[in-house]
Amino acid sequence: MTENDFYIDERDLTLEEVQEALSRYERKYGMTSKEFSEKWKRGETYFVSESVDWIGLLEAYRALNGVSHQQSRN
Fold first, then answer.
1. Of 23, 28, 50, 71, which has the maximum CB count within 10 A?
2. Burial class (CB within 10 angstroms; exposed 0-12, middle 13-18, buried 19+) of 37
3. Predicted TM-score (pTM) of this structure
4. Which residues contact 65 (CB under 8 A, 6 or more apart)?
């Protein structure tokens, strides 16, 4: 798997594409997106570039599902 396998523009993706991209990160790092998000909030992620991409995908997923950022924090 190359770095380009993970580079995407979240604005141009369908919900299915976002879900698949999230699944690739989950497989690569051996944790769910929820676990990653909790680590991100605590500042415990160590793969900076991909962390930003993963968080962007989570925000895209929430937006495509009509979940606001505030709702997703609860």
1. 50
2. middle
3. 0.71
4. 15
